[in-house]
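Following up on my earlier thread - several people asked me to post the actual chain instead of describing it. Fair enough. Here it is, all 403 residues.
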Amino acid sequence: MAYQEVKTTGYGTRVGRSFRSIGSGFLLFCAATVLLWWNEGRAVKTDKMLDEVEGAYVEMENPNKKDASLDGELVCASALATTEDSLSDRQYGIGAVAISLQRHVEYYQWVEHSDEEKEDKLGGKEVTTTTYTYSQEWTNSPVNSAKFHDPAYQQKNFVLTTVEPEEQWAENVTFGAYTLNETLIHSISSKEPMELSFDSVQIAAMNEALCQQGNLADSLEYVHVGDGEIYYGLSSSDPSVGDVRVTFEKIVPAKVTIVAQVHGDTFKAYKAKNGKRFQRLVMGKVDADEIFEGEHSTNSMWLWGLRILGVILVIAGLKGLFGFVETILKVVPFISSIFGWGVSIVCTVVGLVWSLLVIALAWLFYRPLIGITLLVLAGFLIWVFAFKGKDKLKELAARAKAK
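Reply from S.P.:
Thanks for posting it. Predicted structure:
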């Protein structure tokens, strides 16, 4: 059953908070403006860097043989990334020759979810009803149920044991006759579950240690070993609160393609003329054209994502600046709602126009032709809002007088 808490906020408190929101609204508006400007510059610089890289790289035909003539060159090459480094998990005594050895931990816990509804009352008060629900889920860390709002669920969580996640990487990963730097090594993603080979004696020892640690009945089996997993609990197919599962993965040798600058017998990031650096590793044998197409798409995705975020934050900042008037009118919720609707429309239009102006000015600074086009579009929107909107209001007033 859901648990609810009802909180009433007085009119004076709400008005006081709304005035304080003016400052935060102004800061949010300024931060969003800076974000929009910075994002346009970032996108243009990244595009120019990618264009430079596309025109500068050469194909490394045979990475299995060092070529002194390629030293300092930006190359695209495909080869097997492999290692002879042996990695080990000391806590569990398992290991493998691998590029990476990773231990992941999850806990089966009660998790609190909340849903909030607010209602304005005559006189300016606000009633907030928060509904709390609870579900059992796998989480990355133990959940402190003592802070749950429903007393019936407080102190319900516990764990059979705690295990720290761990990640190890090989230091020496070869790429044909060359070696990969740390950044490129960490980009390899050829994961496979670890094969765990614990015998019955080892499992019994782990079970005994767990029982002693948690004061559990040693007649029961709490430790189960499966494919790449150690499970702490009575049944891995029917989890209970407190159960813990530890999974192990390794990154194995795999064919990869890199775009990077040759630096002796290894590689480093290429520094473009505008100062931005570039090096990439993708899985499998991939053409350079595909890599750069993907990079341009990623840059475009970030550009539009941050643009949308910036516009939303600009509008939110404007609402914060003028929201105090709406709060003052909360004495009569109906009037406040109408005014709030109008403020939202005005803030949205002004926010869009302002965002277009900032984007246009940024493009005017970085790419003049597109910037001028955006300025024209922003001017058109201002004209529509300022003049056409006025004409529409006059028309509506004339109709009302005629009636």
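The helical segments are 11-56, 182-185, 200-214, 288-328, 333-366, 368-402. That should answer part of your original question.
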